[in-house]
Write a structure and sequence with these properties.
The complex is a heterotrimer of chains A (499), B (345) and C (351). By secondary structure, chain A is mostly helical. Chain A has helices spanning 2-27, 29-36, 39-72, 78-86, 93-101, 110-121, 123-135, 138-146, 151-180, 183-187, 193-204, 208-232, 257-289, 293-327, 331-341, 348-361, 370-393, 398-406, 411-439, 443-448, 456-464, 469-496. Chain A folds into 2 domains: 1-15 and 291-472, MetI-like fold (Orthogonal Bundle), CATH 1.10.3720.10; 38-233 and 259-276, MetI-like (MetI-like fold, Orthogonal Bundle), CATH 1.10.3720. Helices cover 78% and strands 0% of the residues of chain A. The chains are: A mainly alpha (499), B alpha/beta (345), C alpha+beta (351).
Amino acid sequence: MLLLVGLAVAGLALVPLGYVLATTAELGPKEATDFLWRPRIGELLWNTVRLLVAGVVASTVLGVAGAWVVERTDVPGRGWWHGVLCAPLAVPAFVNGYGWVSTTHAVQSYGGAVMVVTLSYFPLVYLPTVAALRRLDPAVEEVATSLGRSGWSVFLRVTLPAVSPAVLGGALLVGLHLLAEYGALALLNYPTLTTAVLQQYATVFNGPEATLLALVLVSFCLLLLGIEAVLRGHRRRARVGSGTSGEPVRIPLGRYRWPVVAALTGVAVWALGVPLGALVRWLLRGSTTGIEVGELVQASATTLVLAFAGGVAATLVAVPVVWLAVRHRGLITTAIERSVYTASAMPGIVIALALVTVSIRVVQPLYQTVVVLLVGYTILFLPRAVVSVRSTFELVPPGLEDVARNLGCTGPQVARRVTLPLVLPGLTAATALVALAVATELTATLLLAPTGTDTLATQFWSQASSIAYGAAAPYALALVLLSVPSTWLLGSLSLRSGK
Amino acid sequence: MTTLRRTRRNRPAARHLVGLAALALTAPLLQSCGLFGGDKLVIYNAQHEQLIEELAPAFEEATGIEVELRHGKDLELSNQLIQEGDASDADVFLTENSPAMSQVEAEGLFDELPSSILDTIPAQYRPESGLWTGFVARSTVLVYNTDLVEESELPDSIMDLADPEWAGRLTFSPTGADFQAIVAAVLELEGEDSTRDWLEGIKENGTVADNNLVALEAVNSGQSDVGIVYHYYWERDRAEDGDLHDSSEQHYFTDQDPGAFLSISGAGVLESSDMKEEAREFVEFLVSEEGQQILADSYALEYPLNPAVELGGVKPFGELQPPQVNVSDLDAEAVVDLLTEVGFL
Amino acid sequence: MSTPHGAALEIRGLEAGYGRTPVLRGLDLVVTDGVTAILGPSGCGKTTLLRSVAGFVAPTAGTVTVAGTPVVEGRRSVPARLRGLGYVPQDGALFPHLDVAGNIAFGLAASERADSAARVAEMLELVELPAAMATRFPHELSGGQQQRVALARALAPRPRLVLLDEPFSSLDASLREDTGRAVARALRTAGAAALLVTHDQGEALSLADQVAVMMDGSFLQVDAPAAVYLTPAEPRVASFLGHASLVDGDAPAGDRAEATCALGVVPLRTAAQPGPVRLAVRAEQIQIRQDTGDGAPAEVVDISFYGHDATVRVRLDSGELLAARTPATSVPQPGDRVRVGVVGDVVSFPA
């Protein structure tokens, strides 16, 4: 029974990939090549690749440098800087793009696009790196020092390799986000594969051309996953030994102290000051022209309801998948879990395109209903929910359940009296994480939202893309506020993981 | 120890259960947010959201019929209607430009409009089939930055913008339905080869903007010298005392130049609608003097097509010198093919 | 101690602290050869001492000289990487991304690193690991193997002094002894002196040539293992090293080396000043006899049976609690009435 549910979930998660492949096959190789073998596609590929490379490299450098400064030097106000370096996650990239583009047009260029996406996404590298540095036994670095290595050499030869899986994982996330990014890049007038898919959609609805571009996009995502897997290698870099990590020796910055503080301040101003400043500026100006309170309230309510429903749906679907993977480990259950993760290589736009077609052709009554939207959110954010739910299930040793059974509990009783109370906090956290992600989701919502459904993100988008910056400001503010809790949660989790 | 932990965890657990149960209570809220559709008149609207959102309440008040809007771009919604076919929820289709109307018409998805509607609008602004009607019109213009461009430099024809002297000075939005309608007119007036040459020329010369407002802003801020847009973007900004007009002016092409193209926004009732009566009422309201006056008085500044209503504050409708184009002849699909071929899409 | 010149390590008046809390209170220590163990309970400052020598903690006063080169003089100190010391932390802290060979060769000079295979093989042999292990990764090694590799890595650059920070504490008991002995042999073969920090007295006494007993940031006694054990300098050393029970007594006038206490008259190792004294009686010196025999009457409180022997706690009728180690063959029951006597002479301290 559980297995059937698991297989159904896996099937659902594979719908987008299946759709992309099926549609391409339908189109025939000749037409597909004709469409893809054009200068325009080359242009889009070149734009996508150079943004991807520069954005990932810049985010990695900034994220690792920030983590190292916060975790390994005596920079004053480390706790504060940790908060500052996490905080850009609370500003959705499209809000950041809006803040920048409404301040200066200089960002409507390749360099500007790289800068804005870097400032939006570097925390995805920073967070895992900080956590890994904190977990890393400082004795490893001390030994290297005692063997005659300078601080820089220790960092390059010991610290960096030891935290490289975390850095790599973060860089991969940045890459996947960059490939899926639409809002910020559309505002920055920087065309990529994803913005082109949206353009195709706006021009011919979900024609085969949009799907072809989506296929290219998905190939990129899979390529990134492959590169990451190869770089990571099959070696475990788990910590050896079991002693307690001590407090690391902090490198005295000496005369670099104030330049480092200045650099951190620069990052803070660039990543937070400019977008939030623009937001406040437009909010103040917008208040004179009048904010449409009714629509704001309506959009907020819709967003909250969708976010909550999406969070619950993804978490509920994640539970059987995780249960199977953790308690009934086997070939099929592992395959089910893996298939769920394929969605992480599917940008929201691809999932949305797939669901539009499938719902029109196969499940007509559901077409353009909130059900399809929630299914979209579920597929999109299932990897997140599974990771989160899994970590909480792993905290419940099977021994506990055995003990309960020994004390006379039936299966359902064990679940109700032992397992559920232990995992519920984790499930709640998973729900919250997904809910917050749903609240700021743009591309899938644009395509899948039922007629007349406006969320904060779509309302913001409708205003910002028609240069009504003042009217967009309240929605942007609401989106930022909605993102604060999850950012705070991630920030404090990354610090706790070391202890 | 285990017992202790279990009792300690039990209480929060109960609280979480209550939280989950709250989901059940949110269903009515979902309904109020419009997440579950009711029996409202569904309008697939490719016109500017703000414009129709001003008109809809007046219609609702006049008729008691509730309206639900789905927004999108012209060709997005026309293609969506075609894919949805008979199963579409849509009752009324409104566009910014006529090619999308013709596309849906060609698929046989429109129901005929009664003469009470058709007679209100002059014949040149609607197809002979009577399957849909225009309701407002917009004129193509060249907006130019007054610091960067002398009036004497301005081209006589939109076709001149493909000339080398405009290299690096032009902005336009080829992915927008507006520009696509202009291309349709050029295609109809100048033929395929000239149109392709022209598109390749302006691709060479110009910068692509995401939409007309972005193009307008690029010109006004001096990033670009001239931009191809419709008249009302600049006019609207001036009327609202916005930020996008103070360093720029508009240049209207004359003498039936393709650049003087007048694009027609269309409205039609869908064959698949189960509220045809109400849908016709909506279109009737849209072209009525009352409806047209609301449009004229709104911030939109598009030209009403009901001769009884005059639009003030902009270049008078009668002074425009648009080329003669039959609205039914504008071919959306040919335009998309051309734009794809040239590499805009 | 007599030839401080050329000593592997010489510490004079070393003080360190965190904020206003002093942790090291003026330490003096000379390490010439062999293993010197710093033995003390946790929190006594022994790790801070080791880290001060290594260069990870900045002392506030005193000097540290390694192989004749001053590395700490008051507040001036040489950076850790230039001190040329071997360092083996608690878990070995092998570089998880490098294989065994990579770990061992890590500290070699660049010229030697290029062709390090011979040195790696030599070091593996030194720490008694098979040469084939060179290509293994740290997570593929057992705890004891990891520690040996960590030592090989520390010894590879040929340091005069190796610092070992509780290197065996995470190993289980059986492995601990083998690894400890192998490490001591390797150090001796390599001719490196070592500073071993531990809280395990068995480890300190069995492996070290010199033991420094440390409490509250000071050395209580620095001496050979047998000397610290047999002639503790003060009661705290006696009770920390080997379960000595402290008993109040009285030394009579005259030069007879004996004292009177609840256990009767016991011989003293050295004569004490007349007057009240504290006597340190080791568990193995206390003999439990049948109730009919000689000795102070007592009742058995409880028993810990270890197999090879047992610890029997008794309460003398006069009130004192004593711990006795008895052979496994003659273990009484709790509640039994017994007689308690002392075998051999005991150490006395002025009360």
